[in-house]
């Protein structure tokens, strides 16, 4: 199970990749593959942030944060606000 430091590092790597993709194409359209990769990055980011929130909630409730598990993209991407 990943800890907060590892999860935050993964988030940072994803954000860096997202920014590289976007900066490389300023004023230009992204290819279909690049758009697909950006979409995948956004899903991975949502899942990583969700895992951090789960860990924080478990810790705040006096539970073991290590019992939090990464949720499937279909769950995370269909949250209602």
What would your notes on this structure say?
The chain is mainly α. The protein has one domain. 65% of the residues lie in helices and 0% in strands. It is built from 3 helices and no strands. Helix 1 runs antiparallel to helix 2. The longest helix has 29 residues. The model has no long low-confidence stretch (mean pLDDT 92).
Instruction: Report how far the terminal alpha carbons are from each other.
Output: 28 Å
- The helix count comes to 3
Work out the count of structural domains.
1
- Number-wise, the strands total 0
Order of helices and strands: HHH
- Principal-axis shape: elongated
Classification by helices and strands: mainly alpha
Mean pLDDT: 92
Helix content: 55-70%
Low-confidence spans: none
The Rg value, from CA coordinates, equals: 15 Å
């Amino acid at each position: 199970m990943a800890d907060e430091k590892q999860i935050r590092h993964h988030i940072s790597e994803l954000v860096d990749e997202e920014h590289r993709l976007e900066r490389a194409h300023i004023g230009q359209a992204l290819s279909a593959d690049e758009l697909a990769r950006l979409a995948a990055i956004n899903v991975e980011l949502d899942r990583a942030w969700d895992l951090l929130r789960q860990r924080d909630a478990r810790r705040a409730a006096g539970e073991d944060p290590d019992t939090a598990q990464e949720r499937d993209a279909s769950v995370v991407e269909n949250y209602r606000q």
